[in-house]
Known about the structure:
This protein is 14% helix and 38% strand. The chain is mainly beta. It folds into 8 domains: 2-181, Immunoglobulin-like (Sandwich); 186-288, Sandwich (Immunoglobulin-like); 293-402, Carboxypeptidase-like, regulatory domain (Immunoglobulin-like, Sandwich); 406-574, no CATH class; 582-782, Neutral Protease, domain 2 (Orthogonal Bundle); 787-883, Immunoglobulins (Immunoglobulin-like); 890-985, Immunoglobulin-like; 996-1102, Carboxypeptidase-like, regulatory domain (Immunoglobulin-like, Sandwich). The strands form 18 sheets. Strands 21, 22, 23, 24, 25, 26, 27, 28 and 29 form a 9-stranded mixed sheet that branches. Strand 54 (834-844) and strand 55 (847-853) form a beta hairpin. Helix 6 (591-612) runs parallel beside helix 7 (648-660), helix 10 crosses helix 13 and helix 11 (742-749) crosses helix 12 (756-764). The chain is globular and about 110 Å long.
Amino acid sequence: MYHCERLLVAGGGGCGYGVGGVSRGWHPALMGLVRWPRGAGVTGALVVAALVLGVAWSLATAAAQESGEGRYRIEGVVVDGSGNPVEGLWISAYGHGQTPGEYAGQWTGTDGMFRLQLEAGGYRMAMHSDGYGQCTVSGLKNPDDQWQAVFELDREDLEGLRVVVTSSAPVEGSAWTFCHVDAPTFQVQGAVLGPSDEPLEGVRVRAVGMWGRSDPDLPGSVTTANGVYELEVPNGSFLLELSRVIGGLTCGLGYVDANGDRWLRRPASRGIAVDGAGVRGLDVKLPGRPSDLCKRIQGVASGSDGGPLTGARVEALGRGALANWSLAQVVADDGSFTLYGLGGIYGLRVTTTAGSVCKVTDVGSSRSRAVAGVVVGSAGATGIRLVVSGEPRPSQQRLMCQLPPEMVTTQLKPGWNLAAWTGAEAKVEVIFETIPQLQLVYAWDATEQRFLRGAPAGSTDLGGLTTLSPGMGLWLQVGGTEPVSWTRDLLAESGLLSLQEGWNLVGWVGHDGAEAEDSFASLGQEFDAAAAWVEGADRFLIYHPDAPSPANRLLRLNRGGAFWLHLSTARRWLQPGTITPWIETASEVPEETRLALPPLVNSVVAYFSERSGYLVDDVTFYMGSWPGVGGVYIHPGRAVVVTRPEAIAHEYAHALQWQLGVDGDPPWITEGVANRWSAQYYEATGDRMHETHLREVTRPGARMTYGVLDHRSLPTGSAGSNQSLFHLAANWLATLAGDQDAWFRYFGKRSSFGSWQDAFEGAFGISVDNFYKSFEAHRSEVAPPLARIRGTVLDPHGQPVPGVHVRAHSQEKQPGAGADTHRDGTFTLPLGDGAFQLAIHADTPGGRHHIGWFGGAGGFTPLRSQAQVIEVGGEDITGVTIQLEELRWYWIEGVVVGPSGQPVEGVNIDAYPTGDYEGPYDITGADGSFRIPVLGGSFELHLYFDAPDGRRRAGSYSSDIGFSPLFEADEVEVRDEDITEITIRLPADPSTGPWYRIEGVVLGPDGEPLEGMLIDAYPIGEHPGPSDVTDANGSFSMLVLGGTFELHLYADTPDGRIRLGYYHEDEGFTTHRHQAGGVEVPDGDVAGITISIPAEVITSWLR
């Protein structure tokens, strides 16, 4: 998933996919319309974040509005708080929701009236004003009491709207404001605390949307001396945004979810749910006081003449851990700017008309080869100087500010030298100007396999070398008697080389002093030999991959040097160490994963660079928790953020797309191609074949989305199924093109075309619409949409019930599906052919549980035996009605205690049904108690608890002894009354331990390790026993709370799992149960167990 280009707000939310059509997407001319109040900082960016999808109608839109053909009319009046018409206020509607429409707006007349003609689609209303800060719309249908002024146009005009504008807060400068409806609000209350639970005064708190959703534009609150805040919010799901104003500037402090947890980026889940009632006691603890967390970023912006860059906009865009964090301010009259933000690394961007290039003085940055950014440490970052150069532009330009490039120095000795040209492309005369002692320069034409000679300006020597290219190796003849120091730029692009079959003369910009063997290994089988010149000694050092070590004299490669390479096949090569990506991880990332990230990132960067011929060298990578988000590429901050390593390739593919010039390309292209490229990467690295991924993941996923592929709207499906459809489409187009690199060709040409449609046809030779037709025919053959079961859940009074989970269980081991009902009670389940039963999960007195099935006269039954079987056979099944009944609940109640009678918290008690009723579960509280709501029936109580290595089944309830570690559970029967006073006594408290390990190894008859053997610690006594599966070394390790166990060995066969035998202390293994020895774990680990399985048992097992 990629993040579209937009102004971000202090780690602001994501944005939805833009779609094609008239006046969609960010319009840069808006910058000339909006007045940014000085000191607006983060809040200044809010006035256009995700709001403006165009600043005025295009001629096409105006013509369409004039004709009204195929369009709908919305009209109304704008009045102030006293009911007086408001003239000259810009009122607008822009695309919103799953099928967003176009953008349109109009100035109100003297009577306050406005009238817009719009195409069918979803819309949200907004206003642009310099005097009003709130707009409330009446006349919209709002059955869900939602706050946002949104509406759908699909069948009729929308008339009689009344927009009341007020000035509830001071407005500085022109600003865009979302309109809302007059819906009821509820209070959200809590406190903001410091690291020692001290109350924090003066923290601003406001309700905002989750990642990917727009903000509701609600009034905020400022914490009191007691740290307390109080907000009024409508129904919906929100996050809390925290900030602090320092010297008139806003410093963002993060976001708070429903659990009171603080995040630097907006979560996409865990929202604070407000549904007809307020939320109290939502406290949040900050890791420091705002004055300590907020760091000052200060500097001066000027033009190339040194004059102040007055009126330009400076943004600090968070990278790494601060990805998606944005600070902004307008440059003052003296060229100065000041921002406040959290410590970390930031890239700087300037919006101005003063030029085309921005450079930043390196202030406190510990990076140079990968990240153009400023590191903001404990003392902040001051003394920054931004310089914009180049020809002035007629419109505002967003310029990422680059640090000065790294430099490299090479010592040239009198005579012949081999060295690299590591700077930007330049005329050959430049090197003679830089090195006055230079007499001759030779380069090598690898295509023609011949030398090219260069000469200084004015020379009549026509040796063919006119241009110096990044990464070019050069023979340099230096005159005089003294060595010469040659210092020049070191650009990362010099390390991405296009090598030809045969000899190549190349420079080295990878790791300085890199070992030749490791460096050349990345060339693979195509590499034949290398040779480097020893200046002064007039001889070559040779390296050959098949030669014995003493024969290879070329051992290390020096940055800025050059050498000869011989290849058997042409290829691209990203030299190892050309860039060192900035990688950060959150504290919760395991050490093993943390250590594996750098080689994975380097592998991804090398693959895409060598495959495409383009290097994206300034991307940062961050891995850590982000609720509801698996991965995202954030542009223009140029940051990849993932929650799992597998997402890195996909998100870096988006970075490459942006580097090449994404501009309004529809999501089926950007996401589909990223899916294709990442799948191809994993095939190249030996993880999984692309065709296997298409067969097992892409095509099944694509079957669960509906509607045709189109850039004007999104298909109807989950995010995952839509991604699969996009992947299928991108893959089909490459198949039609007959070129595995077709999409690289498209993006390589993208910036030379005005629209993505023109680039599409230019790259593939087929129009977009004709491709859509071809793809639909292909899709119908390989991944036709699944049939759906569609229905409605009603309460006992016939009213729709939202939030009920309906799950289809297969009777024939087919994949099932599940979905929550919408506000109108409807649900949709995509399913393959087969027989299914619908399970109903709804709220009970003890939380949400499985309460019954679809079946019976009213469409609901609590009895499994009465569940109706639905046969799905290719056609949609509609009209399924599930009307819930008034249910009578009973309780199974008890307590779990430890060996000394102390309550045990956190034990999961599962009421496993042995009869016709479903069984819920409960987790013991601090007092060890549990209460399980049931409708009747018989159950076994199974216990699960958390061990240091994960959750496991511990045993079950036995009325005689209270607890059994075996499958010896007593049935608990519920017949018209509660079951109470159950006591389950555990032999040890899993929350306190102590835990001990049983460790060993399983070997074959010749001492070879046996992988995949299941070792079951069978309890001999009251202590629960776990199990483990041997790894590639034949090792197993199990955590226990003490006790005595037999070790039972199992193996998998085509006919199922079989028991091979048992551990015997003397012999190591036996097939007889009575010979199995007990492993006692009294008060310490038991290690060094060796289980040797004889040959005859292995033979029997394989047979």
